[in-house]
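Problem 3 from the worked examples.
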Amino acid sequence: MAWELDNDRPIYAQLVDRIQMQIVSGYYQPGGKLPSVRELASVAAVNPNTMQKAFVELERSGLIITQRTNGRNVTEDTELIESIKQGMARGHMEFFFSKMKELGYTGEEIKALIDNEIAQ
């Protein structure tokens, strides 16, 4: 099944986000081998060149490592993975809180809603 991608952002950036999420969530384990560019491009239903561009970005960030004869692997640097995971979580929280404040909620009201949601 093709990945859901939208037209609001560059496709390669969405691919980076998706693969990053898969790495930080543990779908791809530290030190684990990633599928080839062609395999992932086929799964995502995108051009292999677009997937290659996403891989270059992920390599720049340090999340993946290219080994010429062994393909691409996820970094074994669990501190880097955790740092990126926390950064992604902060981004989601900032977005959530800004939207809640736009709706007119105070910090205490947001906390009460969150506490209520967790209790369910």
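Problem 4, a separate protein:
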Amino acid sequence: MTTLTLTAKRQATFPVETCKSLGLKPGDVVELEARDEANGRVWVLRPRPARARRWVGSLDAYASAATDHSMEAVCASVAAGRKSGTGA
């Protein structure tokens, strides 16, 4: 049986074997569910599925390799937009 010790801040470190078994990596979120069984209350630990990140890569169409993305180019673009009245 694996045991965990809580720190004064109620933090625990999971053994490597447990993390490997659950497929956990640093930064992963874990769900903890209480269940009432015949023997008493038990806790179920499971990895929370990662949320879909639909925004990742959504601006790729606007970032062509031919476009200059330097700070000077960005500032010039903002200034041109302001001058023409189309910018904020």
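Solution to problem 4. The first helix runs from residue 16 to 22. The beta strands are 30-37, 40-47.
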